[in-house]
Design brief:
Beta-Lactamase, six-stranded antiparallel β-sheet, globular, 2 domains, Arc Repressor Mutant, subunit A
Length: 264
């Protein structure tokens, strides 16, 4: 992570490091972070992380939880989010559709937004076993999310290439990296985001993109369900139901989508 920060223009490194720390804290909103672990996760010296965290805590952006001394999000983050009412309006508009989808498809219905080269879960409805790794606030790189891949494959080829072949990037390795490659290959074959036991055993995810007024994918909705309940014969019908719901969303909330896409 520090490699990218070192390339940043002089005077902006502290800002980028601060954002990096905030994103890490948001990823573990329930567990929180010990300072040592947070610094290591972000590739920072402990003293550097402490100075940033102490400053953020003094402004209520972060807080140190009394019971375990871990750092978690502070109330100012919520207060600042009120300056983005369109995001909340979009989440509320989609929420009723997620409720219906989880009842209809018997799984967890999820909404993700595109966030630069990442995706962030902004709503989730339902429960299932095994439980997924995704919760509200979960942030993943585009290529480490079935929802992100559903958006990626709907992008223009030139934009896809930016994500698939970033300059100077080294191929990732390990079991989880291999799982993401399987998801991408399978999603290409089926024409929608599809994860079958690739990250969480016995859990299948089907995801489709939501498009803005220019035909660019800016969000994704999907369903997570036990693999035993999602035989291959059901996959196409689930994707069809999701796509039909997306078309309704795009029609019913076109003005909201325009407003949201302009704010992203």
């Amino acid at each position: 992570m520090l490699k990218n920060l070192k390339k940043a223009p002089s005077g902006t490194q502290t800002i980028l490091r601060t954002v990096q720390l905030l994103k890490a804290v948001a990823e573990r909103k329930e567990i929180g972070w010990r300072l040592t672990d947070l610094a290591a996760h972000c590739g920072l010296e402990k003293s550097t992380a402490y100075r940033i965290v102490a400053g953020l805590a003094s402004q209520r952006v972060l807080r140190q939880r009394p019971r375990d001394r871990r750092y978690v999000a502070g109330p100012l983050l919520y207060e600042l989010s009120l300056a983005l009412p369109t995001h909340d309006a979009f989440k509320q508009a989609v929420h009723t559709h997620l409720l219906d989808l989880t009842r209809r498809l018997n799984g967890i219905a999820v909404l993700y937004l595109l966030a630069g080269n990442e995706t962030v879960c902004i709503d989730r409805v339902g429960e299932t076993s095994p439980p997924p790794l995704t919760g509200i606030g979960t942030r993943r790189p585009l290529l480490q999310s079935t929802f992100g891949m559903s958006m990626l494959l709907a992008m223009p080829k030139a934009r896809q290439k930016e994500f698939l072949q970033p300059a100077g990037a080294k191929p990732s390795s390990g079991d989880r990296a291999a799982g993401y490659r399987r998801i991408l290959q399978r999603s290409r074959r089926y024409g929608f985001g599809l994860n079958i036991d690739d990250i969480v055993p016995a859990l299948t995810t089907v995801a489709v993109p939501v498009f803005d007024q220019n035909g660019f994918p800016f969000a994704s909705i999907g369903i997570m369900a036990p693999t035993r309940d999602v035989p291959e014969s059901r996959l196409a019908s689930i994707a069809k139901i999701l796509n039909e719901r997306v078309r309704r969303l795009e029609t019913e909330h076109s003005e909201l989508i325009v407003e949201l896409s302009q704010a992203m």
